[in-house]
């Protein structure tokens, strides 16, 4: 056993044993199928454990995480996850979840040069510039960062909803909603930002895509 990772393997053994004590057939059932109703798109921050926050077991939540929970139309990794979740797993809900105090969002509001991550955060920096006047009226840096975390989630909900993947699901009559939520690291509470999108009629006209010929 790897000595440096020994305690992690021991933790895993205790966790697996606890699960089997509660449900002896849990892992057998888990191995047979993956039928989650939810796709979680969240931040890579280690303080934001997706399954635990919403109280779901393995197999009940399909998860994609990246720095600052960004959805960019050229990110094939994220788009592949969305496509698999929507078209293969047939999830009914996409949960775009940010968190207050996000380091990626904070970095996008400053002029420090960090390296490769600067390009990744560019869209959030653009969003901050767009809202800079309103943000600057908030009394503290923490309040400004937290508001930007909310605005980032709202923008990512829009980005997910505008993908051909999601709109084609709606054209097929597939039930699918995209929700914007945010998690408070200080209190552990998961908050609904009331920006759910459940159909193309909720999108601005320039972003509505007509069904591709022969798709349906």
Key traits:
alpha/beta, 9 helices, single chain, five-stranded mixed sheet
Query: Helical stretch count?
Result: 9
Number of strands: 5
- Can you tell me the residue ranges where pLDDT is under 50 for at least 5 consecutive residues? none
How large, in whole angstroms, is the Cα Rg?
19 Å
Distance between the termini: 53 Å
**Gross geometry:** globular
Q: What percentage of amino acids are in beta strands?
A: 5-15%
H/E series = HHEHEHEHHHHHEE
Relative helix content: 40-55%
Report the average pLDDT across residues.
Answer: 94
* Structural class label: alpha/beta
**Sheet with the most strands: spatial strand order:** 2-1-3-4-5
Could you give a short account of the major beta sheet?
A: 5 strands, mixed
Topology at a glance:
Blueprint: H1 6-22, H2 26-32, E1 38-43, H3 50-54, E2 61-66, H4 76-88, E3 93-99, H5 103-108, H6 117-120, H7 122-136, H8 141-161, H9 164-171, E4 177-183, E5 190-192
Parallel strand pairs: 1-2, 1-3, 3-4
Antiparallel strand pairs: 4-5
Helix pairs in contact: 7-8
């Amino acid at each position: 056993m790897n000595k440096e990772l020994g305690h992690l393997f021991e933790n895993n053994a205790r966790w697996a044993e606890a699960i089997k004590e509660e449900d002896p057939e849990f892992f057998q059932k888990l191995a047979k199928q993956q039928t989650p109703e939810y796709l979680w798109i969240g931040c890579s921050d280690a303080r934001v454990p997706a399954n635990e926050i919403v109280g779901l077991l393995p197999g009940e939540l399909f998860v994609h995480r990246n720095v600052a929970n960004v959805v960019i139309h050229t990110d094939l990794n994220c788009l592949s996850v969305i496509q698999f979740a929507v078209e293969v797993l047939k999830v009914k809900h996409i949960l775009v979840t940010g968190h207050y105090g996000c380091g990626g969002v904070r970095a996008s509001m400053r002029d420090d040069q960090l390296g490769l991550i600067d390009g990744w955060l560019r869209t959030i920096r653009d969003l901050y510039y767009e809202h800079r006047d309103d943000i600057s009226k908030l009394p503290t840096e923490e309040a400004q960062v937290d508001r930007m975390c909310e605005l980032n989630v709202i923008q990512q909900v829009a980005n997910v909803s505008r993908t051909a993947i999601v709109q084609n699901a709606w054209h097929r009559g597939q039930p699918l909603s995209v929700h914007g939520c945010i998690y408070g690291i200080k209190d552990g509470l998961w908050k609904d930002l009331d920006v759910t999108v459940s159909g193309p009629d909720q999108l601005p006209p320039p972003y509505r895509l007509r069904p591709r010929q022969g798709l349906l």
